[in-house]
């Protein structure tokens, strides 16, 4: 079981890196050099919402990245707009600009092409089974972390 568990961890890590490479290849194809793959995923995950940087960070999608730095760069390059919250002047809310919406549309098109290609390799039921297993692993790790903090 330990060998299979370790293999799962390695595969999850590798899949994450490969997916970032997929996004990078798409950015290269689009000749976009003012944004990186992690920043692109941040935009895609914001989508049509208006969030604080804290809310974005709490989603936890950005392993090993500095969300504040990436948001600053996205604002500087015109992908995000930033506004002070009306009720708390210390807090800022971010949302996609027109440029940010356009790149999200292109990434959505990439996802659709991926889905069409992937459907030749596996069906929806197989992908749902993978998702269920990954969700179980996430639940296990979350429970482990929560229990560790309770023990201290």
Question: Can you walk through the features of this model?
Answer:
With 152 residues, this protein is mainly alpha-helical. It folds into 2 domains: 2-121, Arc Repressor Mutant, subunit A (Orthogonal Bundle), CATH 1.10.10.10; 123-152. It has 6 helices and 3 strands, in the order ααβααββαα. The protein has helices at 2-29, 37-46, 53-59, 67-76, 98-118, 124-151; strands at 51-52, 80-84, 92-96. A 3-stranded antiparallel beta sheet has the order 1-3-2. Helix 1 crosses helix 2 (37-46). The longest helix is centred in the N-terminal third of the chain and has 28 residues, at 2-29. The protein starts with a helix and ends with a helix. The model has no long low-confidence stretch (mean pLDDT 90).
Short synopsis of the structure:
With 152 residues, the chain is mainly alpha-helical. It contains 6 helices and 3 strands, in the order H-H-E-H-H-E-E-H-H.
Q: What are its keywords?
A:
mainly alpha, 152 residues, 6 helices, three-stranded antiparallel beta sheet, Arc Repressor Mutant, subunit A
Helix content: 55-70%
Q: Count up the helices.
A: 6
Give the CATH superfamily of the largest domain.
Answer: Winged helix-like DNA-binding domain superfamily/Winged helix DNA-binding domain
User: How many angstroms does the end-to-end distance come to?
Assistant: 28 Å
CATH topology of the largest domain: Arc Repressor Mutant, subunit A
As residue ranges, the low-confidence spans are none
Strand residue content:
5-15%
Strand order of the largest sheet: 1-3-2
Under the CATH scheme, which class of the largest domain? Answer: Mainly Alpha
């Amino acid at each position: 079981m330990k060998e299979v568990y370790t293999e799962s961890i390695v595969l999850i890590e590798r899949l994450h890196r490969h997916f970032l490479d997929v996004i990078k290849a798409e950015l290269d194809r689009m000749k976009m050099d003012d944004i990186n793959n992690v920043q692109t995923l941040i935009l895609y995950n914001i989508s049509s919402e208006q969030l604080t940087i804290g809310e974005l960070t709490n989603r936890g999608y950005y392993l090993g990245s500095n969300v504040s730095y990436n948001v600053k760069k996205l604002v500087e390059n015109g992908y995000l707009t930033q506004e002070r919250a009306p009720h708390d002047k210390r807090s800022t809310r971010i949302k996609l600009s027109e440029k940010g919406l356009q790149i999200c549309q292109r990434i959505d098109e990439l996802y659709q092409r991926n889905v069409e290609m992937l459907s030749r390799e596996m069906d929806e039921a197989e992908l749902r089974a993978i998702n269920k297993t990954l969700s179980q692993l996430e639940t296990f790790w979350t429970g482990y972390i929560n229990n560790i903090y309770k023990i201290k």
